[in-house]
Design a protein that fits this description.
single chain; Growth Hormone, Chain: A
């Protein structure tokens, strides 16, 4: 164990505050596209939509939304999770906190000015790289933003976990996660008050402003100690031996339902709501559904984190909230179709049930040694976020499977319209079973000493 003097309480509090604000901006920027999906794509794809029948507009926007968000941005998160995780263990937690926020802030600022470029204009050279159109620029910048957004939570949680007392570690990380989740709520109101371009610019500017606050942040003493020797940031150490890989996968799988709920049930609530039978006049607004979901997530994160402290158990807290999530998914499909108000309420309850993200993030940091802790704590949340693409793909696959299921008589229009929600319900059942089984593979980490290395 290292003997370096522990940072003062004021420095610890400052790290917690800055990490919380960083995650706030991270979530603000992460959810911007989901909140601005229809508004921005309607503008960027105006010529394509003009040549498409009005009845097919939602389908076009859904397909592009899945591609830009669930595929490109989430794949960027996965790539960035590996990049920033390794750098966090090799170069330090603070290096990642600076590098990641700079990357996604610049990407969002550039996202605010995407446009179709004339070949003979000053920026005509972009055509040589296939970036002459606004939609191609959108694709690249969502991927780059994903890479940048990948580093914030893992590095912040790792740093906070390593400099706080073991008994108060869960409370500190809960504060970070709860404050961060509120970034989505603020983002909703920003997107309502400003144009989609202005909203992206605000998100980028917030990130750059936060860089100034990070100047006084202290590095982890545990990392300062181990940087002088041993393997650091060796991602293969998470893959071998097999028992460590199983532990890592179990950490990831316990949180997959969270991003299935956010990435499919809530973000595409307009599509699923219509499939559930809500009339066109009461079709849910994805932005408002996301806002209510994140209100629930903030309450859930605070509750699950404090519950884990009270029960002195991360595993028990996660299990209780997994059970709440199962009930919330059922309520989404059974109560949500009653009206638009009930649908938004079900999204809020769904967020509450999925609000064990704080405990998950803390667990991801506590399960592994200092030499690979940032790698584990950064890659795990981003693999979970990337799972939104996998669960959305499973949803689409289930739709096709149900559509092709042989029947004795031709399907009615109502039966065909119900397929999207039925496919989503089947997908939800699958991810919940996987999540609850994964919890069995994790050891209890409440109050464990984090000053150890993986060998």
């Amino acid at each position: 164990m290292h003997t370096e003097e522990s940072p003062s309480r004021s420095k610890v509090r400052w790290v917690v505050v800055v990490a919380a604000l960083g995650y706030f901006v991270d979530i603000f920027d992460l959810l911007l596209f989901a909140l601005l999906r229809k508004k921005s794509l309607t503008d960027v794809l105006a010529s394509q939509l003009a040549a498409t029948p009005q009845a097919e507009h939602d389908l076009v926007l859904k397909d592009w939304g899945l591609w830009l968000d669930n595929t490109l941005q989430m794949t960027g998160l996965m790539v960035g999770g590996i990049l920033w995780g390794v750098l966090g263990d090799r170069l330090g937690r603070i290096t990642v906190l600076f590098g990641s926020i700079l990357t996604y802030s610049v990407a969002n600022l550039l996202n605010a000015v995407i446009t179709d470029v004339e070949v003979n204009s000053m920026f005509g050279f972009l055509h040589s790289f296939g970036l002459g159109s606004a939609i191609r620029q959108y694709e690249v910048l969502r991927f780059l933003a994903g890479i940048g957004l990948a580093g914030e939570l893992g590095a912040g949680i790792t740093l906070v976990a390593e400099i706080t007392r073991r008994e108060g570690r869960g409370t500190a990380t809960t504060i970070v996660a709860t404050v961060g989740i509120l970034g989505a709520v603020v983002a909703y109101f920003v997107t309502k008050a400003f144009s989609w371009r202005e909203a992206f610019a605000i998100g980028g500017a917030l990130g750059l402003a936060l860089l100034v606050l990070r100047i006084r942040v202290v590095e982890s003493g545990m990392w300062n100690h181990i940087r002088k020797h041993g393997h650091r940031g060796a991602i293969w150490m998470l893959l071998w031996p097999p028992r460590r890989l199983v532990r890592y996968l179990c950490v990831v799988f316990i949180a997959v339902p969270i991003w299935f709920a956010v990435g499919t049930l809530v973000k595409y609530g307009d599509v699923i709501g219509a499939s559930l039978g809500l009339p066109a006049a009461e079709k849910p607004d994805p932005g408002q559904a996301i806002m209510w979901c994140y209100v629930g997530l903030a309450i859930g994160d605070l509750s699950s984190g404090l519950l884990s402290q009270w029960l002195r158990s991360r595993r028990k807290s996660v299990f209780i909230f997994q059970c709440i999530t199962v009930a919330a998914i059922c309520a989404y499909f059974l109560v949500g179709p009653r009206s638009q108000a009930w649908f938004y309420a079900s999204c809020g309850v769904l967020g509450l049930g999925c609000g064990y993200w704080a405990v998950f993030a803390t667990t991801a940091a506590e399960q592994f040694g200092t030499n690979v802790r940032a790698t584990a704590a950064t890659t795990a949340p981003n693999l979970v976020r990337w799972s939104a693409a996998a669960s959305a793909g499973l949803w689409v696959m289930m739709e096709r499977w149900l559509m092709e299921w042989p029947t004795q008589t031709p399907r009615s229009a109502e039966a065909i319209a119900a397929i999207p929600w039925q496919a989503a319900a089947l997908t939800g059942a699958i991810v919940m079973v996987i999540s609850m089984l994964a919890l069995l593979g994790l050891r209890e980490t409440y109050g464990v000493d984090l000053d150890f290395e993986e060998v």
